Amino acid sequence: MSTDTDASSTLALGEINKYDFRTNTPSVFKARRGLDRDIVSQISEMKQEPTWMRDFRLKSLDIFNSKPMPKWGGDIGIDFQDIFYYLKPAEKQGKTWEEVPEEIKKTFDRLGIPEAERKFLSGVKAQFESEVVYGSLAEDLAKKGVIFTDTDTAVREHPDLLKEYFGSIIPPTDNKFAALNSAVWSGGSFIYVPKGVSIEFPLQAYFRINAESMGQFERTLIIVDEGAHVHYVEGCTAPMYSTESLHSAVVEIVVKKHGRCRYTTIQNWANNIYNLVTKRALAYEGAMMEWIDGNLGSHLTMKYPAVYMMEPGARGEILSIAFATAGQHQDAGAKLVHAAPNTSGRIVSKSISKNGGRSSYRGLVRVEPGAKKSRSSVVCDALILDDISRSDTYPYIEIEEQDVSIGHEASVSKIGEEQLFYLMSRGLTEAEASTMIVGGFIEPLVKELPMEYAVEMNRLIELQMEGSVG
Amino acid sequence: MSERLEIKNLHVAVEDQEILKGVDLAIGRGEVHALMGPNGSGKSTLGYAIMGHPSYEVTNGSVELIDADGTRHDILAMEPDLRARAGVFLAFQRPMAIPGVRLADFLRHSVTNIRNPDRKEGQELMPMRDFRGELKSKMQDLSIDTEFARRYVNDGFSGGEMKRAEILQLAMLRPQFAILDETDSGLDADAVRLASESIARIGGAEMGILIITHHEQLLEHNIPLQTHVMLGGRIVESGGPELAAELHKQGYDRIRKAYPEAAAAEEAMEAERRLETTTS
Lengths: 470, 280
Fold this sequence. Notes:
The complex is a heterodimer. By secondary structure, chain A is of the alpha/beta class. Helix content of chain A is 24%, strand content 36%. Among the domains of chain A are: 29-303, no CATH class; 422-470, no CATH class. Chain A has eleven helices and 24 strands. The longest helix of chain A is centred in the C-terminal third of the chain and has 17 residues, at 430-446. Chain B is α/β, with parallel strands linked by helices. Chain B has a domain at 224-242 and 254-280. In chain B, the strands form three sheets. Chain B has a six-stranded mixed β-sheet with strand order 6-9-10-3-11-12, with helices on both faces. In chain B, strand 4 (56-67) and strand 5 form a beta hairpin. Chain B starts with a strand and ends with a helix. Chains A and B meet through helix 9 and helix 10 of A and helix 2, strand 7, helix 3 and strand 8 of B.
């Protein structure tokens, strides 16, 4: 048993916000650094997985090794052999917060998770390093047949359902980081919402990286059956270390006929996290899939949530906010694939760059042959707060059908001297005025968030804006 | 509380072109002054320079607030937000749109800062209930629909709506000295009358007002103590309300003839502007 975690129990140097703290949390098992067949087998063994999953992992490792690094997007300077791929923080998952080890519980207390659960959530999963350490689901939902568990448990307890979809929406061959996740995945959420069941309050998962040089590879699978409805929210944070950590998740979603799924992410990673995530949803007849994606922090984020509209009447919406400040590159965007007639999609992307940060919008709208009467609109707006920051737009459009309506608008604006002056002439300081302008810029997206998250989002933006002037 | 706003020998340049060439003007609290003059004579420049627009460079002269005990506050040394907190207000001729920011949220922040000039960033705002109550009553006074406060600041506002939003801000912020830059432009006769009445009700003995206008209607309910005429970046003549009426009816020919030097300066500035438009 190793306890090779960072021994610092004091708050990180120069604490800038409430997420930048680390605890001295002994782990019950930590795989050695690096990545090879032994490590992958060891993870599978620790989890007592069936053979098919171990074989899936090993095959995925081969695919990972055979694929080159992506040549686009950001500069991925990761030494894959210098990362810890698996760290088990607790013996078992708690069903109450009391059952969660004290140090870990403290972490989530500080992040406000138990409080949020009491107030407005239908269920919670809390993942610390590689494993989900706490899980709950409202009793009435369990009775209706809703499943909300971690994906490891789902492998054991819901093998048929899991096997049908796992890796089918995002196969390991999709991209290098999907292959990596497929090889070393651990934790993540598994959700099944039965036919016609509508879940009123959100289900939330919180992903916390605490240790240094840690790789977190959660794997989430959501199945929304016909006419069912769910809103899933994930929050992600990590403290600041001097070496890089890696977060590389895979999220697969199926929304069946007339089902609705909304997936909200608010991430605020530390500045040295590589955040390379693959997210994709299939929407069937008349179904609605929405991604709301708030990207703050990290050294490099590459994330393009996708909706494949598979059957007539399917709808897909992706709303994305990216905020890049010093030392950060947000390469974020969206992907809409119209694979059937009468499907409609919308992408709204807002990015903010300041203090030398770089944000890029990278998006694809694809219309397959035969997807007649499909409609898509893309709006991407960038706001640049100073002369040293950067914003780029890479919109890709592939249309193989005549009878469609596709719109694209893009704007890049600098925070206006005239706007600042107007607000300052009404007694606002320059910092207050900038923050207000930025808040207004993202308001159309923030107002889509449930109130609690909207408040959190605004607070995060204010934190990012602090010290931005003078 | 300051008793006077005093402008002395004010010279202002924009992109190295001198626009104001020595303006002298003093406004006491409770007084209304009118500032008239042809387009391009420098009226708006005076407003921007007093408020501290970064593109308007003061090259000479002073702008001071003077308290009853004689204490002088050099407002040119202050950032625009501090000028606002010191009691100066500019109603913009063309106010800026701030998309996504609700008028009510912006005003609550603004009112809080102006009423507590020492407030630091991040400190509590004025209590929501108090603010809403006051805003609602002010909006009723000005016959503005309360829905208006939920709209984004000047975003998609008609010309008339923008001007009304400026007057609403004047009513909420109650500055000691207000400069109203063509608050009547783009309004129809009824709207100008309403604006004129509103300003008269907001003003009174507590506020000194400088009304920049081309017309006399706005002055109907705000009889100026003095009317000033600006030409070629200087105030060339001051008089009573009858001067405003004369200028409105007969234009600036008499003024140009009487002050040939200022008229020449006006022409030179005009020529330079024309040159810029053709070369850029």
